[in-house]
Amino acid sequence: MTTTVAPETLTPFPLACSNCGVPHTSDRPAAICLECLGPLEVVYPADRVLPDRDTIAARPRTLWRYREWLPFEGSPVAAKDTGWTPLQEAPRVAQALGVRRAWLKLDTLSNPTLSFKDRVVTTAINAVRAFGLDAIGCASTGNLANAVAAAAAREGIPAWIFVPHDLELAKLVGTLVYGPHLVRVRGTYDDVNRLCAQLADEYPWGIANVNLRAYYGEGSKTMAFEIVEQLRWQLPTAVIAPMAGGSLVTKLRKGFGEFLAAGLVDGALPRIYGAQATGCSPIVKLFERGSGGIVPEIPSTIARSLAIGNPADGLAASRVLRETNGGAAAVSDDEIRDAIRELASLTGVFGETAAGVTYAGAKALARRGALGPDDDVVICLTGNGLKTAEALHADLDGVPTINPRLREVEALVN
Ligand SMILES: Cc1ncc(COP(=O)(O)O)c(C=O)c1O
Ligand SMILES: [Zn+2]
Questions:
Q1: Shortest CA distance to 85 belongs to which of 50, 111, 55?
Q2: DSSP 8-state secondary structure symbol assigned to residue 126
Q3: What ranges do the domains of the chain cover?
Q4: Does the domain made of 87-114+219-396 have the CATH classification 3.40.50.920?
């Protein structure tokens, strides 16, 4: 007798406009509502059954342990092993900041490409499969390019990846190695993004952060879910994350909110803080102005992964920082470099420039009293320092080079 195993199937939940509520009825995903141009968001079935803590805890250690909060019916067909990065307590950071306790959320160690963008690509690549699209693409400041290229390679599907021409070497090589169509565009990220919006209308591609944006963004919520579970089902009082397009901070808020609503955790929503480089800080400036919309900027900073001058979710991000009683900080390139070094020396963690922004932002917030001795703080380190090593290249000038002779070492020791 033979038993037949049903093939894995995956159905994406539908989309509706977050502005006017009109459902998106086309069988192809889109970025925006055809009625009002508002952003589309995933509509989850109201009657879905949610798991309890024990059920979740017994599942494999990947971000799919939270699958009821991810935008599909059925089992994932791709990128099944991403997520569950370490949450490392950092007492020396707590001391440096003057807070009760501090933890580092280490998406520097994300599988497979060492940044939190693996989370968003996990949902995006499954959406590509579920919609039967021919290829996956993205507009990227680097980390998303790495993550899309790796996921596409594992699936054996073509990838079209568009980046600003002047990205760091490791971001380019770390994309190209997977064999995608990599295209460097003369212009800023915002130019690249505009081009990709046109391409999404032209080709049957799923562009992760354009026509798949609603599915892509949901992957970021898993960072909040993991933080709660790794704190043994408790909430921190404050969370600090970097901002580029502004999606991550909005999805952290959504993730914490969903676990509170599900009764998986009690207490107050954490205060959410966002950090940017002063050379590209349109969301911080909007938050500080307190009204109006994003004023686009031409970026100029070593934090290239965060160099988005016209962030798609900037307004929503600024609202989240306000409504959670959090805040925002912008830091200079020198502060970013110092923060990368200090973080490494206090914790053994080498973060990329975006992590330097986040840690420098945490320090600035602590200095101005936004973080204090009653706080339990999680600092989201979203990318790995090996990808942006050139930021500290000049530090090598101070390293001695010697002949292999004992006397030369003795001279150094003395
Ligand atoms: C390392 C890193 N952290 C954070 C972000 C910001 O994410 P978001 O665009 O969701 O604000 C990015 C975006 O590219 C990134 O590469
Ligand atoms: Zn609409």
A1: 111
A2: H
A3: 11-68, 87-114+219-396, 117-216
A4: no
Strands 159-164 and 181-185: what pairing? parallel
CA 107 to ligand 1: nearest atom: 1
Domain over 117-216 is classified CATH 3.40.190.10: no
Those residues whose beta carbon sits under 5 angstroms from the ion ligand 2 are 17, 19-20, 33, 35-36, 38
Same fold, 87-114+219-396 and 117-216: yes
Among all bound ligands, the one having the nearest atom to the CA of 121 is: 1
pLDDT at 316: 96
**387 φ, ψ (degrees, to nearest 5):** -80, -20
74 beta partners: 10
* Pairing outcome for strands 376-381 and 87-89: unpaired
Examine residue 242 and say whether the peptide bond preceding it is cis (omega within 30 degrees of 0).
no
* 369-393 b/e (C-beta count within 10 Å ≥ 16 → b): ebbeeebbbbbbbbbbbebbbebbe
Amino acid at 172: L
Radius of gyration in angstroms for the set of CA atoms belonging to the chain, rounded to a whole number? 21
Please tell me the pTM assigned to this model. 0.96
Locate 52 and state its tokens.
């309890």
Q: Distance between CA 32 and CA 15 in Å, rounded?
A: 10
Amino acid residing at 275: A
Block mean pLDDT (10 aa), the chain, length 414: 58 95 90 92 95 98 98 95 98 98 98 98 97 95 98 98 96 98 97 96 95 97 98 98 98 98 98 98 98 97 97 97 98 98 98 98 98 98 98 96 97 96
* Nearest CA residue ID for atom 9, ligand 1: 245
φ/ψ of residue 310, rounded to 5? -130, 75
Instruction: Give residues (CB < 6 A) around ligand 1.
Output: 115-117, 141, 143-144, 242-248, 305-306, 352, 354, 382-383
Write out the E strands in 224-326.
Answer: 238-242, 271-277
Q: Tell me if residue 161 falls in helix, strand or coil.
A: strand
CA-CA distance, 149 to 147, in Å (whole number)? 6
The CA distance from 293 to 321, in Å, is 15
Crossing angle for the helix pair 314-323 and 282-289, nearest 10 degrees?
Answer: 50
d(CA 107, CA 87): 9
